[in-house]
Amino acid sequence: MPAAILLAAGIGARCARPGDKSPKQFLSIGKHPVWVWPFLAFANHREIDQIVVATLPDMVDTIREAIAKLSCSKEVVVIAGGETRQESVRLSLDVLSKSNPDFVLIHDAARPFLTAQIISDTLDSVRKYGACTIGVTASDTVKKVADGVIVETLDRNSLVLVQTPQAARFDWIVKAHEKARQEGLSVTDDAAILEQAGHKVVIVQGSPHNFKITQPEDLALADALASIIFERV
Ligand code: CTP
Ligand code: MG
Q1: What's the number of domains the chain is made of?
Q2: Termini Cα distance of the chain
Q3: Is the shortest distance between the CB of 212 and ligand 1 below 6 Å?
Q4: CATH code at position 123
Q5: Domain that holds residue 184
Q6: How many angstroms is it from 12 CA to the middle of ligand 1?
Q7: How far does the centroid of ligand 1 lie from the alpha carbon of residue 106, in Å?
Q8: pTM
Q9: Does the pLDDT value for residue 231 go beyond 80?
């Protein structure tokens, strides 16, 4: 059965606003903190068997208590993540190696608008191809720049903005992370780790709503969207 990893161990440096007492994933949108929404999406999806949440070391107990109150029927393990996102993933994979799931979905806790449909589409694709990532086509034209000046206009039709979940066969992703570590490769997503290990990573169509809260402006947008999307929840 597939497992999910929820990454909530970042410090949210780019999103920090004066007065915020905690990183972005712990701030509330609607009636829950940001991280709870994607957690619930995994917890309520019948095909996800087990969830690992990687968080900041001083938040492990708080997150465990919060999850206990959500009365989730799945097996959930909360761990302290690492210094980098890559390290948080690797530590989470280590935990899962005991149960050895067939597939794993890796998701940023800073993307609250994860849906059951996105999870199902990711599962369909990973079962078929072995490795995939959610992505959206770029609606703006993307330019390559140097020193603030455009040097190239890229062909929009060949560009995709990748999101999470990213998913892979468990054996592939474990080996790919090990290889990345041995070679000192440092990247910002798991698709890159799989690519470097020689795997084809298939793109699964996502939604612009599945954006990552990265800058302070994204929090205002997430708040507004939460009042529409989560009102029913
Ligand atoms: N993340 C993690 N462990 C880290 C760093 C990041 O689990 N050591 C998680 C974040 O909590 C987030 C996701 O990875 O859910 C995507 O990372 P990003 O948006 O870069 O979040 P931060 O690293 O927290 O933000 P910043 O880079 O602005 O500091
Ligand atoms: Mg980061």
Answers
A1: 1
A2: 27
A3: yes
A4: 3.90.550.10
A5: 3-230
A6: 6
A7: 13
A8: 0.97
A9: no
